[in-house]
Amino acid sequence: MGNHSTVAEFILVGFGGHSELNVFLSVLLLALYTVTVVGNIGMIAVISADSRLQTPMYFFLKNLAFLDLCYSSVIAPKALLCVSTGNKAISYNGCAAQMFFFSLFGTTETFILAAMAYDRFAAICNPLRYPITMSKRACVCLVAGAYLSGCLNCSIQTGFTFSLPFCGTGRIDHFFCDVLAVMQASCSDTFANEMVMLAVCGAIIVGTALVVLISYSFIITTVMQMPSAEGRRRAFSTCTTHLVAVSLFFGTILFMYAQPGSVSSPDQNKVVSVFYTIVIPMLNPFIYSLRNQEVKEALRRQLKKKGFLH
Hints:
The chain is built from 10 helices and 3 strands. By secondary structure, the chain is mainly alpha-helical.
């Protein structure tokens, strides 16, 4: 490695721009993050407090809200600090921790979304066996498996990335310690590390996306065979919110990581990253509450119980 040495800290380039742009970004990031925290905590509180929502679907939804809250919190506060104060330094250990937890929560979310698709498949295609198929034990095992898979992936990603030597200024052309951006800051050949990341992340994304696609293929086939138009409408209505959430999440992830490196640019990656690290976690509570009659009724019951509605 010659004179290469590990840097003590990295510099997050962030969005650059003039002070006026930084003020706008500060206000925007603060607003988005505040709504994300309030929305996801509110979703968790409503589901936990309402006895009618103690079903597998809402058990998964509560975990989804928790993950959205966590992985947005790993990114947004540091990004806000960098933009508002101009202090763009992040310690070596802080960068590794940020990558570890972001990868943990993001990976776990892909498995939770796949589990939610399987839950809808079991409810619509095998309704008589649904209480057995999606028992409390089965749901807990699926969530535990999602977290274990997330731990495995984030350990591999963080371990392989921070086994690289870093030298010079440790400049990261991003607003957080994303795997690809950190690898590009290394002063050694990163081809092997990139191939490992591509193989692991590709297997996770393709595997979970296949679960979603196969589940919804069976769901659509079953629903179209229903004789009643009202039955078809009700069946589809239980899936639309999940489909919207899945489309947003997997769409941005695939756009971010599946395109060739020569096509993407750092600025484009930053914009897409803002969308899936901050905007999607903010949107999910609204998608699941505004498009879901049960959640809206549960929220109304809780507001009446607290005396906010009459």
